[in-house]
């Protein structure tokens, strides 16, 4: 359970990331988390199962791995019980439960798994639930949520756990995660999920894929995030670099 | 002809905007230009016809209007002869000519009309020529360009002169142009094209449309730009606001 | 509850519109309703919550506002209880309940909120339920529906409550709502939702957006509807005007 | 050469159809032409090559076939020389030449081959040229066109000569061509292209495809047209039937 | 209930096809089934309702028709009870039940109805459940499935029961079903659904549509299947023919 | 100039690959070429410039590199003069010239650069020219081509030279190039372009990208090809493996 923390920087609203399984956030966007927490932003993870349907790892191991990994990334973590691993359904009650977390944590930016249907079914369902939760968090009349003030987040980004989960209809933003200490922290966070990392080549998949994107952008490694809504910019200075090698 | 200018701020590479007709830049993205020049960035316009095929205005009037409008926006302006208004074709020689301008002006960000085909045919053709020009500007062996050093721009954005010209497959970024002095400058720049503004309700179209976008984003007025390539960000702090009212 | 009405014109099958909240129909397509009822078509509204999760307005107020607004538009109205505001789920039982209404009202044209997921979650879910209901209404063997004869509607159109809800993959039809008495009736119907209209600038959003579309089409104001299926025409005379200013 | 004709009905602006080869209009939308001319609308065909690159038929034969076929459909016909069959390029001069025809014929509705690139290369190029021509026809300052008054058409529709040429991103309208005399006229017009019809099974392709669409719409045979711009309707009565069998 | 069968060819993993109603598989892809069983592959059908909501036919008749039809196609068949015809919902428990069947049958290729939403609502829901089931079948930790070993299928293809159900975003593969004995077997299998075939012209729809595709491909009749994931090929010899008549 | 070759295997029609620059074929699909020639298929390369606009390498060097690389891949090679590097335009005369090569070489499968516009402008233009050339090759009446018999190819595939050039609207096929001798041959062929390979990390880009795809497909390395038309299959046995790890 996340405690009210003295680490909150006044200039940074916290980052709130949702994952369907104990390793989704790390594999899908761990490098971005590392970068933000290194820059002083608070990050909090909400994990919606204990990974109990996976082929490898016990729930106990997986919770321990998630705690270790979050700590490496400088994030706090909590576990939420919805329908269980491989059993997640899109229910209004779930969206309302997640909306309650949004009201409690009061994030600026929220991260969720992408909505593409051709992946583990829990991923797009949690993505949908998170998107809906971010809306419900600002509706004043939802009776289950009345004990906490409404919260309007600033941005919702999707991350893709695997390549086929990348949204085809959203132009991504690429986050440069090439700095050695960032890359190293991200790799450590993935390796902390030892029960998953040994059996399959998930880490190689993520790094190869991030390197492909980085090469395209003329940098080292890059992670892609997919904004739910167009970015609102004050100035082109915020958007002065594109992923083009020419 | 743009002269080497003492106004160049070292921290800002200049902005280079291409327009097919004397009023395209102002109608399509004049508010963004105003914002950037107010922030100290140098802007240069390249206009590729004298608007001689339009129903209203003589070439002489239209050049004068364009000069007045660019001055109001704080931009320099030059005219380039390609095939003439309503006669533009996609030719390698044109792309190379524009690439020469890119090498001379050495911009960070380039603006061009969008590629959607269902608009004045000169617009998407100039968009294509600009995109190609930005690439050719960095190829060292193009013989016509050898007198100037290669130039790799950082970003290419498209602007839409009319609503049907908005690209359907690119997530836009929205630029907040709500500040009164910005909005006023933009309107003045559009009004400077008196030969066009009186006959049709182009200015109302642009303002209504910008207000629609602004309302969606929870601000006053917003202009949309469409990046040719994904944005590369150092941090989520650059992307901390989305066009969502929830 | 709608009563069998002597007002039914033989040449016009009634129009049936579904809304998730008391104001959705008016904000999304009220001008079209006004135009059709002025032309003598019967219209009936089915509202699927009392708006109890909104930040403003009590259920009692909102029901009163919906009744007043429907009366201004010349439509009858009924309220249906599904899962409640902000709690709607896609359930077969809901679709069957709505199919029962389709069989009772026997409409030619049905209107429903659009399916785009990036909006209030109740909207696309009601859109899906309506689409399914229109199909189920014609299957003779659905046991819950056997007491009423099957009904095959002629057309299903989607309306968008907000701009981001516009379907990207359907070419809209634009309905001209520029006539002063139509526009005035539509505005009155939106203003009747006083609890919503005062707090936010929804009315300005709708009018700005309708004016943008109208300017594009060379008329005053226009509302967009998105057909679920291609239009079947007897002659091009039915399609003799396009939204083009050239 | 089309002569000013006493047959012009005041209530119907003429229909103008462009074809790249002598048989394209008949195969792509002959049934629609038959329906419109039977209803009293004037139709004029502009054919932009003599079909000289085809495997079968001499130019002389093909011109004769086109004249016979147009007569069967009740349309006048003219031949325009652009670059020749299989040699068509997108040139501004061609668009201006076609714009001159638009100004002369003064159509309400224009028909052109679809823009999909995966078909005979002359088809999408003529589609592009026609779209551009319809725009240029209304620009007052195009010097080559000054001898004729500007003309703003009402609608541009694309027809698909083969199934793979159907635009994926436009919702079609379906025209019911089931009436026996319409279907018979269309088939006769296709058969008039004897040099093409005997060698390949083009007629079966068109009829099978039209029957597929008709079955989907619950009617006999249907042809699809793809509007370049959204339809502007005065009332839903113009759009009261959809291609749905439920 | 399918029994372990001595007919299993060692070189062919069985084909497993899911249908929401007793006739979906036959109408959507019966010709493909015929071709595969004639080539010696084992096929098994899983039918997820008794068709009890249809306008024609009793459940008893429809089960008999399905058994007769499957026998004609050389397939075994079983019936699974989910929520009933016209009542299907996307539930995790259903996906797990179907995953159990995947583990039991151990197919290489799985066929399911397509995901397009604009069709009978049971179809896309069964498509989603099947896709998820194929994933869940390989997750070792799903407790309801532990009694059977995990199974990783090789391919999931979607079939479209009606034309509007064809996925727009997947390039299909076309299966040549022109051989007279294949076509005859397919037609017989459709005719075996006598309660459906007499009332409507479904068989003509399927054959017309297959002939359209066949003409496009330069063959007789062709059925389209839509792969869930890109095909992995050892050599271009496996892909040496395209649906092009040029 | 390719000579009629005794190496032609009767069971394999030759493979014909077009490249805009001396290294495009090798970087975009060299591994596929290696696999096909190892399997006994004849391959012929047509290179449409000498790479004279690139930043590195002289035309003479680049031609030598291309010859060496083609030899390593077991392919013959010829150079065709169109408009020159960075100067290519879409002209009917070019398409006809390439159609003449198609008639001479008589390939079954043709490879060309992809049509995505956001890449080196010569690439999509050559892709368009090749697609058109494959069509023109079968039209009997094209006068410039009459000296050679018509040729109907079986398949046209596109390759992507860089990741942003991948077509978004075509489902690719993945070719397994994991076998050590294939991978080694491909790398050697890329390294043969020494003038390009040393300056930039193109080889790492291709290998990282191919490894990403391979990991997704559960194999080593994979190259993607994008079919211009749906594959026509005799049996599902030709499509029995999908790029899915589940």
Question: What can you tell me about this protein's structure?
Answer:
With 246 residues, chain A is α/β, with parallel strands linked by helices. Helices cover 37% and strands 15% of the residues of chain A. Chain A has seven helices and eight strands; from the N terminus they run E-H-E-H-E-H-E-H-E-E-H-H-H-E-E. In chain A, strands 3-2-1-4-5-7-6 form a seven-stranded mixed beta sheet, sandwiched between helices. The longest helix of chain A has 16 residues, at 202-217. The radius of gyration of chain A is 17 Å and the shape is globular. The N and C termini of chain A lie far apart (48 Å). Mean pLDDT of chain A is 93; it is low at 1-10. The D-F interface holds D 51-56, 83, 85-89, 117-118, 120-121, 164, 168 and F 90-93, 95-96, 115, 128, 131-132, 135-136, 138-143, 150, 169, 228-229. Strand 8 of chain C pairs parallel with strand 6 of chain D.
In short:
Six copies of one chain form a homohexamer. By secondary structure, chain A is of the alpha/beta class.
Features:
homohexamer; 246 residues; alpha/beta; seven-stranded mixed β-sheet; globular
Radius of gyration of chain A: 17 Å
- Major β-sheet strand ordering of chain A: 3-2-1-4-5-7-6
- Pair of chains with the largest interface and how many residues each contributes: C-D, 53 and 53 residues
Number of helices, counting only DSSP H or I runs of 4 residues or more of chain A: 7
Give the terminus-to-terminus CA distance of chain A. 48 Å
Shape of chain A: globular
Largest sheet of chain A: 7 strands, mixed
**What is the chains' assembly state?**
homohexamer
Structural class of chain A: alpha/beta
């Amino acid at each position: 359970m996340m405690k009210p923390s003295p680490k909150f920087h006044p200039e940074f609203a916290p980052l709130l990331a949702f994952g369907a399984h104990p390793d989704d956030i790390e594999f899908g966007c761990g490098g971005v988390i590392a970068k933000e927490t290194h820059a002083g932003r608070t990050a909090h993870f909400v994990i919606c199962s204990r990974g109990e349907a996976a082929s490898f790892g016990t729930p106990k191991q997986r919770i321990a791995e998630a705690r270790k990994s979050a700590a490496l990334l400088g994030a706090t973590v909590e576990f939420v019980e919805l329908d269980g691993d491989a059993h997640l359904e899109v229910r209004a009650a779930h969206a309302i439960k997640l909306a309650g977390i949004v009201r409690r944590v009061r994030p600026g930016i929220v991260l969720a798994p992408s909505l593409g249907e051709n992946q583990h079914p829990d991923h797009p369902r949690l993505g949908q639930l998170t998107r809906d939760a971010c809306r419900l968090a600002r509706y004043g009349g939802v009776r289950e949520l009345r004990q906490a003030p409404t919260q309007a987040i600033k941005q919702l980004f999707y991350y893709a756990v695997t390549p086929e989960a990348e949204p085809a209809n959203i132009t991504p933003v690429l986050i440069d995660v090439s700095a050695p200490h960032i890359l190293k922290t991200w790799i450590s966070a993935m390796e902390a999920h030892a029960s998953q990392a040994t059996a399959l080549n998930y880490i190689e998949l993520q790094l190869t894929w991030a390197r492909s994107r980085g090469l395209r952008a003329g940098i080292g490694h890059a992670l892609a995030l997919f904004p739910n809504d167009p970015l609102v910019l004050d100035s082109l200075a915020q958007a002065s670099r594109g992923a083009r090698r020419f």
